[in-house]
């Protein structure tokens, strides 16, 4: 298939609701064949594992590239120079190198985001007044999260929706004005942003002794977690605090799990209990594997998550994450990053070394 | 049956909160009860240990203390002794290490604490060991005596069996009262040792205690830090940083952080007759405790120009690791550990896409991996748990400059080279921060009296009290025989 054909097929597939393995697998294999042919580093990766489109029976056997691979390899089917947009990874970097995901068009990414966001976050609402606790897309053009949040605001934000972030960081004054306004009008309000922005906001509110009670139907979306931040909260504590400070019940506090190396996001149905069950739309599938052998583990065993995201058609669809999880009937439990395991003794491990060597 | 860890002289076990640690290895679960003291209990315990340390321990002769330690070690070496039997039975279950490896490792390690070795240990740091017992004349004039702290707090980490004995014995040798905090990953060995000491010399047994709290429980930790006269802590930089920050400013805090060690193989060692044996020795250092020790090698710089090429040598190591898997199987890995190994292995595979001669040996299902590189690679840790890298170099003399930026992380270098090379390399390696050079096969078994991370294990623990010559001279004027 050509790029244009792939895009067309994908857009149709996303629009069609509810698919079975029988429909998912053939398309996954076609996209794999396309990536195998056009993405030479990925082809080498597959050949080393003696996997080619010819030997492939199911999406489950498609070789998954470790997300670190994006730091070592340029994984793109299109000419990287011709990409409409490049999203770059953040976080722990290897020798300061950031992984890049090339998008020849954002049409698939955007359709994927919009379709799933409507189902999983908006639910009964068509539009909501929104506040975004994250920098704008213009400030961070290589951040997939900045683009994601811009889409949310543009597609689903009603009049008055805005960024509550300025050049100095969080704009508390505007944020509190928005929260007070929502409380007075009684109309549902949505607050979206990085998990850690919420921690900062709540620290500030605690300092001021401020709480609000957002109107019924209001919701919160947080993403990213706390790893690597100066302060880590237990999930239960975090969602308790959200409920207490904003008056949004925990089952309306939704956590989005996404990554630069994907074009589709996972959501839970609120965080009444933690860890919550995460699931994605019909064009992404996940497996729990033994990270060493790549073999799929029986349901209920703890392992590492592999995602096969058809919407990430230009790079590689199947990635091996560094996130631990457990498969359930209706999704998976996300258990957080499987920290590159510190040594049990006094030997130094890679993660610690990188951190120390970079000061 | 649940085992009990900890050793709490003067505290009734019924008054203590006991928590249960469960170890489940390959379907065999065992439980260990660990004591969690209240602030009040920690304070009382510290007070009592300081008191006995001042009243009793400080007046004991070092030779008497070494005799007691020697007797305790003798029991741990005696395979008919119940403590030894427990160690052989339970340590493999708790740590996951192969039983035979634990057994051999314990014997080799404990042998370094026999009486003659302990004397050597003291003599390493004190030219005149009697300075620990009484005032001794000093070369500069006057007299001096070395005093250990009344309360030395040890915060241990890691699962390498028996490592805590090292600092505990150091503390006893300088007549310090000791409270050691055992890690959840191996809480038993230090506890048993304390019990044995108390059985042999009940009074000495009142000078040490073994406690536990969950790593990261800063409140419990603070209770001990507040009482200690000196703190010795082991762990990663983050942990050590916060321990040091919370140690009162008037209390010294000695930290031992995580390290990276490596091997060097000269072309002189790479003739067809000797290379196999050298590879066997290198593999042994990798296998011992699955590279969890600070002295365990992560990589080997191998010199070109020998009859056996660096790439062939890498293959030799791979073969040896495969053989060792039969004899000492790798312990089963947690998901986190497996993920670390996988990330390292995959990253090495990626590199091999670009560099023609780079290779990764071993299958993903094997319990070991060897990566081979001809690139100008810097020092970096391996994925641990029997993963190692062989880096081909033109000459070993180039290596010190490459590792110099990592001075803060360096520890042991295992060398296979001819005498004059060894001399030359030792000088270059010492200058860039390497603190220990050993033969291959000995990297993970430092000799008695070694200077851990280049420090003086005993000297670092004492304070000197000096009587200057002026005091002696002045005293003469007040004697009853003054003219």
What distinguishing features does this structure have?
heterodimer, A: 359 residues, alpha/beta, Rossmann fold, 2 domains, six-stranded mixed β-sheet, globular, B: 483 residues, Aldehyde Dehydrogenase, Chain A, domain 1, Aldehyde Dehydrogenase, Chain A, domain 2, seven-stranded mixed β-sheet, 16 helices, 18 strands
Architecture per CATH nomenclature, i.e. the level-2 architecture of the largest domain in chain B: 3-Layer(aba) Sandwich
Which CATH class of the largest domain in chain B is shown? Answer: Alpha Beta
Q: Structural class, from secondary structure content of chain A?
A: alpha/beta
The general outline of chain B is globular
The geometry of chain A reads as globular
| Chain-averaged pLDDT of chain B | 94
Q: State the CATH class of the largest domain in chain A.
A: Alpha Beta
CATH architecture of the largest domain in chain A: 3-Layer(aba) Sandwich
Q: Please report the distance between the alpha carbons of the first and last residues of chain B.
A: 77 Å
By CATH, the topology of the largest domain in chain A is Rossmann fold
> Number of domains in the coordinates of chain B?
2
**Strand percentage of chain B, roughly?**
15-25%
Task: Tell me the total number of β-strands of chain A.
Answer: 16
Count, helices of chain A: 10
Biggest sheet descriptor of chain B: 7 strands, mixed
- Major interchain interface with per-chain residue totals: A-B, 39 and 53 residues
| Cross-sheet strand order for the largest sheet of chain B | 13-14-15-12-11-16-17
Describe this structure in words.
The complex is a heterodimer of chains A (359) and B (483). Chain A is α/β, with parallel strands linked by helices. Chain A is built from ten helices and 16 strands. Chain A folds into two domains: 3-97 and 283-323, no CATH class; 108-279, Rossmann fold, CATH 3.40.50.980. The longest helix of chain A is centred in the first third of the chain and has 18 residues, at 21-38. Chain B has helices at residues 39-55, 62-77, 82-95, 99-110, 115-125, 163-173, 189-200, 202-205, 218-227, 237-246, 275-287, 310-327, 335-354, 399-403, 419-431, 469-476, and strands spanning 2-4, 17-25, 28-36, 136-137, 143-147, 151-155, 177-181, 208-211, 230-235, 252-257, 260-265, 297-303, 359-361, 369-373, 387-393, 410-416, 436-439, 463-467. Chain B has a seven-stranded mixed beta sheet, with helices on both faces. A five-stranded parallel beta sheet of chain B has the order 8-7-6-9-10, sandwiched between helices. Chain B has a three-stranded mixed beta sheet with strand order 1-3-2, covered by helices on one side. In chain B, helix 6 links the parallel strand 6 (151-155) and strand 7 (177-181). The chains are: A alpha/beta (359), B alpha/beta (483). At the A-B interface, helix 3, strand 14, strand 15 and helix 10 of A face helix 13 of B.
């Amino acid at each position: 298939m050509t790029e244009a054909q792939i895009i067309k097929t994908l857009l149709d597939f996303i629009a069609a609701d509810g698919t079975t393995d029988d429909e998912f697998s053939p398309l996954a294999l076609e996209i794999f064949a396309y990536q195998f042919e056009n993405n030479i580093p990925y082809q080498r990766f597959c050949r080393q594992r003696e996997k080619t489109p010819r030997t492939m029976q199911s999406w489950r056997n498609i070789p998954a590239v470790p997300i670190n691979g994006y730091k070592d390899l340029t994984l793109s089917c299109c000419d990287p120079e011709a990409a409409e947009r490049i999203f770059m990874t953040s976080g722990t970097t290897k020798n300061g190198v950031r992984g890049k995901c090339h998008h020849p068009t954002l049409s698939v990414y955007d359709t994927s985001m919009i379709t799933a966001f409507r189902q999983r976050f908006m639910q009964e609402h068509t539009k909501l007044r929104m506040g975004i606790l994250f920098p704008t897309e213009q400030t961070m053009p290589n951040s997939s999260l900045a683009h994601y949040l811009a889409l949310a605001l543009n597609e689903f934000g009603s009049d008055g929706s805005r960024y509550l972030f300025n050049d100095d960081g969080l704009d508390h004054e505007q944020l509190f004005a928005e929260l007070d306004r929502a409380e007075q009008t009684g109309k549902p309000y949505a607050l979206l942003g990085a998990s850690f922005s919420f921690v900062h906001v709540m620290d500030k509110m605690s300092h001021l002794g401020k709480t609000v009670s957002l109107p019924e139907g209001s919701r919160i979306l947080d993403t990213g977690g706390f790893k690597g931040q100066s302060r880590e909260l237990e999930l239960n504590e975090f969602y308790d605090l959200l409920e207490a400070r904003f008056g949004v019940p925990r089952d309306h506090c939704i956590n989005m799990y996404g990554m630069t190396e994907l074009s589709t996001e996972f959501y839970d149905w609120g965080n009444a209990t933690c860890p919550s069950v995460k699931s994605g739309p019909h064009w992404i599938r996940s497996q729990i594997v033994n990270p060493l052998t790549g073999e799929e583990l029986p349901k209920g065993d703890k392992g590492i998550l592999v995602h096969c995201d058809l919407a990430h058609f230009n790079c590689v669809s199947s990635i091996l994450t560094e996130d631990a999880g457990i498969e359930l009937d209706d999704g998976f439990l996300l258990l957080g990053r499987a920290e590159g395991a510190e040594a049990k003794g006094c030997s130094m491990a890679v993660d610690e070394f990188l951190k120390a060597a970079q000061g | 049956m649940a085992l009990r860890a900890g050793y709490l002289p003067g505290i009734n076990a019924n008054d203590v909160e006991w928590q249960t640690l469960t170890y489940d290895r390959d379907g065999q679960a065992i439980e260990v009860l660990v004591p969690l003291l209240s602030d009040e209990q920690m304070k009382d315990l510290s007070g009592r240990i300081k008191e006995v340390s001042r009243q009793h321990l400080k007046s004991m002769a070092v030779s008497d203390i070494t005799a007691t330690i020697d007797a305790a070690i003798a029991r741990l070496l005696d395979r008919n002794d119940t403590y030894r039997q427990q160690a052989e039975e339970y340590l493999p279950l708790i740590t996951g290490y192969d039983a035979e490896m634990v057994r051999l490792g314990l014997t080799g390690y404990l042998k370094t604490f026999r009486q003659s070795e302990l004397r050597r240990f003291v003599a390493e740091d004190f030219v005149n060991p009697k300075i620990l017992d009484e005032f001794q004349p000093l070369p500069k004039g006057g007299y001096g005596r070395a005093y250990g702290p009344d309360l030395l707090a040890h915060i241990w980490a890691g699962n390498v069996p028996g490592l805590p004995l090292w600092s505990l014995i150091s503390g006893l040798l300088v007549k310090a009262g000791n409270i050691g905090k055992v890690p959840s990953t191996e809480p038993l060995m230090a506890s048993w040792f304390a019990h044995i000491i108390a059985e042999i010399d009940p009074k000495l047994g009142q000078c040490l205690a073994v406690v536990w709290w969950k790593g990261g429980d800063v409140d419990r930790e603070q209770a001990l830090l507040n009482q200690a006269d000196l703190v010795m802590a082991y762990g990663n930089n983050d942990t050590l940083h916060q321990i040091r920050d919370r140690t009162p400013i008037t209390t010294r805090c000695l930290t031992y952080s995580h390290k990276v060690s490596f091997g060097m193989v000269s072309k002189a060692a790479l003739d067809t007759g000797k290379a196999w044996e050298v590879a066997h020795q290198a593999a042994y250092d990798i296998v011992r405790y699955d590279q969890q020790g600070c002295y365990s090698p992560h990589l080997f710089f191998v010199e070109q120009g020998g009859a056996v090429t660096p790439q062939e040598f890498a293959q030799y190591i791979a073969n040896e690791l495969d053989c060792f898997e039969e004899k000492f199987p790798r312990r089963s890995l947690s998901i986190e550990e497996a993920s670390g190994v996988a990330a390292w292995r995959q990253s090495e595979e990626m590199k091999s896409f670009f560099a023609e001669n780079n290779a990764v040996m071993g299958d993903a299902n094997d319990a070991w991996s060897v990566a081979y590189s001809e690139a100008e690679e810097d020092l970096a840790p391996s994925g641990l748990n029997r993963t190692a890298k062989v880096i081909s170099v033109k000459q070993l003399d180039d290596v010190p400059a490459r590792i110099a930026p990592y001075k803060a992380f360096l520890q042991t270098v295992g060398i296979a080279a001819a005498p004059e090379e060894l001399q030359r390399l030792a000088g270059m390696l010492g200058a860039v921060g390497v603190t220990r050079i050993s033969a291959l096969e000995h990297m993970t078994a430092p000799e008695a009296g070694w200077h851990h991370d280049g420090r003086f294990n005993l000297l670092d623990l004492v304070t000197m009290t000096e009587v200057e010559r002026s005091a002696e001279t002045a005293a003469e004027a007040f004697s009853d025989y003054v003219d």
